[in-house]
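tool_call: predict_structure(chain=1)
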Amino acid sequence: MSIVEFQANVEEGNIIIPEEYKQELTSVNLVKIILLKKPQKQAKQFDFIDELGQNPVLVAGIRSVTREDMHER
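tool_result:
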């Protein structure tokens, strides 16, 4: 068994074999395929606590408490 390695695009679930390898594969009945998927960039998940930390909601009558106020004895 000979090894041929190449990167290929996938279109609608079909692996597109590069032109330079198509002729070589026309007489082959069976191949072994090993897929190494390139990770896709994932959109950052929305985290409500992070959003509030960056953009606090101001409520009338509620005052902000500093770290020093919290630990004052």
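agent: Strands lie at 10-11, 14-15. Proceeding to next step.
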